[in-house]
Amino acid sequence: MYDTGKIIPGLLVFVGLVTFPVWYAFGTDAGPLPNPEKPTKARQCVESTEYMRTSHMVLLDDWRDNVVREGGDRRAKTEDGTEYIRSLQNGCMNCHTSKKKFCDECHNYAAVKPYCWDCHVQPKEAN
Amino acid sequence: MDNSRRKFLKIAGLSAIAGIGAPTAFNGLLKGEALASAPDLEENVLKGEVGKRYGIVIDVRKFAENKALARRCINVCHSIHNVPDYGLNKDGSKNKKDEIKWLWTDGFENVFPDHSHYKKNADLHEMPILALCNHCDNPPCVRACPTKATFKNPDGIVMMDFHRCIGCRFCMAACPYGARSFNWRSPRELKADGSYKHIKNFNAEFPTRMRGVVEKCNLCAERLAIGKIPACVEEARSANAMVFGDLNDPHSEISEVLNSEFTIQRKPALGTNPSIFYII
User: For residue B50, which residues of chain A lie inside 8 Å, CB to CB?
Assistant: First the structure.
C-alpha cells in the first residue's frame, strides 16, 4: 500500500472526530431530568400520567378535530368526576397554570418547538 | 406481405378494444368530479334540510333607526374574537389591505348588487348594511379549500380550523361576499409596554390568529356550544334588529319571522343558499 504513513493516522483522526460526541459524553449523564410542575388544585388528569407523557399531542389533536369538526362536546369529566373543558387554552392551562414551568420544562429538554402559542393564549406568568 | 397483414390485424384489434373501452374508462374517471358551477338547486335545498342549520335575519330598518347599533355589534364581535384593528393609512383612508373583518358595514349597492338600481329609495343610499359570512348551504369557499381547513359543521356553520390553513387564499377568491380576510401581518405585534398593538380589548379565552392564515365569522360557534347566541345578535336584541335560530325548525323564531316578513339574500342567483336574510 502506498502512503501508509499518511492514510492510517488520517483514518485514526477521522474515526476519532466522528466518534467525538460518544467519548466526550462518556461517563456523564444527560443532565437533570425535566421536572414539570404539578398542579396544586387538581388531583387527576384527563388520562393516566404515562399516556399524557407520551401522547398528549395526540389527545390535543383528537380534541380539536372532535370539537371543531365533528361537533363533539366541549366539556367532559375525569374518572373522579371533575368536569373539564376540552381545550388547551381554557382546559389544560386551567390546572397547569404556567407554560414556563410545565410545557417548556420538557419541550426545552427534548428540543421540540410546538407552535401552539403562536395563536393560543398562554396564561399570564406569575414570575 | 404476411408480416404486414399480421401487423394490420394487431393494430385493428387494439383500436377496436380502445374504441369500446375508452368511454367506459372515461366515465369511471369522471365520476365524483366536482362541478365548476353550482349544483342543482333543488338537490341542494333538500340536503340543507337535514339536521340543524343556523341562520340570522337582519332587520335593516332597525339599524337605520339606530345608527350607532351596527358599530356596537361590530365592536363586540371583534373584541371577543381578538380581531385586530389596523386603523387608517397615513393619508387617513381606510387600510383596506391589512383590514381584518368578521362583521362590517357596506353600502346597499355593494351588499346587494343584484337588487340595486339607479332609481332606488333615497334612504338606501346612505344606509350602511351589516354584512358577515353568509354560512352558505352550498359554500364555494369549502369547495375551493385544498386542505379542508374550512368546512361545514353539523350545525350548518361554515367553520375554519386555523391549524390547517396554509394561507393559499383560494377561499377568498371563491367567496362571492368578500367575507374572508387574510392576515398579512401578525396580529400579535406588541407595544412597548408588552400589550398588543392592534387588539384593544384582549379576550384571553379566545385564541388570536397568526400571520398567513385566513379568518372570518364563525357564527360564534364557541358561544353556541355553551348555550349562548351569537354576540352580534345579543347586542342587537334590545333593538330587536337581529334574529338568530335554526332555519330547519319550522317553529323557531327565525322561521316565523321568515314566514311573515319579506326578506332578501345576498346574490341569490349564485346558488350558494346563504343563511343570512335581510328585511329591507
Answer: none
